[in-house]
């Protein structure tokens, strides 16, 4: 099923599959508010995987593992990058 069909109408959050480039065994489904800034997403991920916020670089992939964008502006809301349920942000140290 395509990720865009998994989005719940009227919901301001998204369920993302999170993986870590340096921790091959790390994978989690985490719900994020689309209003959360990239910086607050990094804070939430820090608590889950232990990589410091300043060492993270987030990339957004779709459900076919095609890279869509770098989440490079820490002040932007996650929704700016238009993630859908099932998309994958990757965090890894610089």
From TrEMBL:
Pfam families: Ubiquitin_2. CDD domains: Ubl_TBCB. It comes from the Eukaryota. One of its GO terms (biological process) is post-chaperonin tubulin folding pathway. GO terms for molecular function: alpha-tubulin binding. Residues 14-87 form the Ubiquitin-like domain. This is Ubiquitin-like domain-containing protein. It comes from Castanea mollissima (Chinese chestnut).
């Amino acid at each position: 099923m395509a990720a865009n069909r998994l989005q719940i109408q009227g919901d301001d959050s998204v369920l993302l599959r999170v993986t870590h480039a340096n921790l091959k065994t790390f994978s989690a489904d985490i719900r994020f508010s689309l209003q959360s800034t990239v910086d607050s997403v990094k804070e939430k991920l820090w608590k889950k995987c232990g990589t410091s916020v300043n060492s993270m670089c987030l990339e957004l992939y779709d459900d076919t593992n095609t890279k869509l964008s770098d989440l490079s502006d820490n002040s932007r809301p996650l929704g700016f990058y238009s993630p859908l349920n099932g998309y994958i942000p990757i965090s890894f140290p610089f």
